[in-house]
Each structure stands twice: as C-alpha cells, then as structure tokens.
Amino acid sequence: MIxxxxxxxxxxxxxxxxxxxGLSVExxxxxxxxxxxxxxxxxxxxxxxxVANKEDVPKxxxxxxxxxxxxxxxxxxxxSSNLVVNALVGxxxxxxxxxxxxxxxxLALANKESLVVAGHLLDCSKITPIDSEHxxxxxxxxGRAVSKMTIMASGGALRDTPLDxxxxxxxxxxxxxxxxxxxxxxxxxxxxxxNKLFELLEARWLFDIxxxxxxxxxxxxMHAMIDFVDGCSCVQLANADMKLPIAYAL
Length: 250
Hints:
It is built from ten helices and eleven strands. By secondary structure, the protein is of the alpha/beta class. The radius of gyration is 19 Å and the shape is globular.
C-alpha cells in the first residue's frame, strides 16, 4: 500500500493492521514527526518516503525522500501499489485523492475534507471510507434499497457541559474525548459537533442519498442505522476501535 499520513492516529493504526496481516508498504508519507517516521521506515522498509517540509529531508533515514504536496503526487505516480490509504489531515489531502482516482488506484479514504469540499466531483464508487459511521452504513446496506441513513455521534468531550459553562471551556478540556483516542483536530471537531456535519456531507456523496440524520449515542457502541424501504431498520454496533473499518478498507 501507499500510506499518506503514516504518523497520525489513523496511519499508526493502519500500520498495526499491516504488520498483523503481513501487508507490504511501498511508500510512507508523514508530516513533521520524524522520529516516529524513522521507526516506521525501519520496520516496513518502504521504497519511497515523503515529509511535509524540505528542511526535514536530511533527518529522514532513507535514500529516496520527497517533500511537500508535489512530492506526494510524484510518489503516487512512481508507486506500483494499487491501494492508497489517504489519512492526511486537512485540505492537503484533496489533491492526492484526485490524483489517486485519476491513476485508477483503489482509495481507502480517511481524509474528510476531500469529500466535504469535492464530493460532487469524485467517483465515490472507487472510494472505501475509513470511518466508523460510514463503515457501519456500508456494512448494513448490503445492496438493499434504503429509505434513510442515520449516523451516530458521541457528543464529544463537552456533551454534558451545562450551556452556561461552555464559554469558559478550554482546548484542553475539549480534547478529553470520553470514548475515542483520535488526533487533536478531529477531537476538537467532535466537541463542537463540526465533525458530525462533515460526516453527513461525506455520507451524502458516498451513498448518493439525501435523507440523512444524526443522533447522539453517548457510549459510541452504535455507529450507524439504516431504515430500508421494506420497513425494516438495522443498527450496526461495534467497539470504539478504528482498526475494524481500517481492516475492512484494506
């Protein structure tokens, strides 16, 4: 595989799955956590490596090191692997998403911004989402005709905070997610419920459906629910562990 975002939460979990099942890693793309990246290089021996900043290139223990977004796109061209895991955070993930689809490679997508910003431009039939809610919807649908899809939200770190105390909350308190161990940006977005808005937009394009809703499920055991046109409803339940959707995506 080609792993974009190897030192983030999704990237680290993806490499654990790769190690467990003996999957090869052709390229590692990381940001600025060079020490962790070097550990990953030593374990997985990739052909190519890419970092965010040019000044970090000499610090990387590898002969073929690229940098910045141009480096990511060049690596995608050079690699023979047909699977790209895009776990980049933010809009930097959009161009690699488009490039992956243009090259005809399979895309396992954890980068939310790609779908939020450009979902209407992407061929979502070639995308497998790495997300507990969208994995749950895919797992339940199984080709059946759908009336409505619902994704679940934990409510985040500030869910039970009284309204009159919200203004005094700090980033530190918002980062204390009760159920999930995630990166900082998505944890903050969870606390503000912005992440759930993103996921509704993602579901709109992934499943070509507009009848969508979100519900708060505080334990993060229920992840998705589908109401089918025949009157049946199904709920997907699983532990709060991203390794499950990652494993299915791979």
